[in-house]
Design goal:
With 86 residues, the protein is α+β, with helices and mostly antiparallel strands. It has helices spanning 22-27, 36-44, 51-61, 66-82, and strands at residues 7-12, 15-20, 32-34.
Length: 86
């Protein structure tokens, strides 16, 4: 999937943050805090074609209900799209 804005993933004081970099830092005020799964999804984005591929990968790593994983992934992706990141 195509990430439109420039971010750096960092762990700072136990928090996982997406820190805007380059021109994105001028356009976006602040950082985004991710949980562990959000960070995993972020790392997957350049490698995957669609949300279903993300869901499949997460289901291999976590013991969770597929419907819940799909719902959570969809909500996270909607947030990224809403911020213009995807």
């Amino acid at each position: 999937m195509k990430i439109k804005l420039d971010f750096v993933l960092r762990e700072i004081a136990g928090d996982i943050l997406l820190v805007p970099a380059g021109k994105t830092a001028l356009d976006l005020n602040g950082m985004l805090t991710l949980n562990e799964v959000g960070a995993e999804i972020w790392k997957m984005l350049p490698e995957v074609e669609n949300e279903e591929e993300i869901v499949e990968r997460l289901l291999r790593d976590y013991d969770a209900e597929p419907a819940q994983v799909r719902e959570d992934v969809s909500a996270f992706m909607d947030q990224l799209r809403g911020l213009g990141i995807l």
